[in-house]
Amino acid sequence: MRAIVVEDGTQNLVIAEVPTPTPGPDDVLVRVAAAGVNRADLMQRRGLYPPPAGITDVLGMEVSGTIEAVGSQVTGWSPGDSVCALIAGGGYAEYAVVPATQLLPVPDGVSIVDAAALPEVAATVWSNLVVEAGLRPGETVLIHGGGSGIGTHAIQVAKTLGARVAVTVGSEFKAQRSRELGADIVINYREQDFAAELADSVDVVLDIMAAKYLPANVSVLAPGGRLVIIGMQGGLVGELNIAMLIAKRARVIGTNVRNRPLTGPGSKAEIVAAVREHEWPLVARGQVRPVISARLPIEHAAHGHELLDSADSVGKVLLLWHNSNPD
Asked: Domain spanning 2-118+290-320: which CATH class is it, in words?
């Protein structure tokens, strides 16, 4: 099969012939229609975020497409089913192996291509805002990167949960899109100090910056607040005011989805099941929808990475194979 790989000795993305993967007894083989681009892909391309042990080094952590074959122990899924899926790697390819417990049906009202924009953001947002942070109706949540794939999804989910939503963005274009999605407070971090604007008033912070924002994030927390760190775009090591954390009875939580176990408590299977139960009805009713920045041919994967890393992207970037119909 064809796949996008990182060229040896460089960071160039090229199409190469690689072996078609074989599903195990608990897996399915998916013929990929589209793959979502995630910041983790950019980090892996640079050698900063290797895949878990035993996972292909082909990039791509979410796909949509059609089931080609099912493993001997798989029930409830059949060849020909339209699906999307959360995976640990291998999405930028014509075929991907997916543990059956990480499959999701394509939601009602969403095309098979656009469904590729949902698994990673849905799993990340639900597991962190709801499971880890316990966001409740009436609470205030601060979402950093309101124009990102995770940010645009988190705004919508938080609003359906009855939360007051604040976001940080870097441009007026992203600010306007955030307001359209339901954000109540929009802060342009290039012009405003979010720590001053929101001091001691935020119940949950969903953070992608880590070290750079750590002191400010703790300062905006209300008593009992929860800071959930899911990214490291602002560095790895920061200074934490322990006295302030204790005085606020606050918590700092570090988490990711990719390296979780496949099954058991806190597993990918558990998260995917919760997404299907709680988020998929919201998508079917149009309360939460995929936000797509661009749909690009798979050959333009490098441009997709550049777009995701630019100030011009709001929502998800998708990579499509030639046999994919965006409608």
From this structure: alpha beta
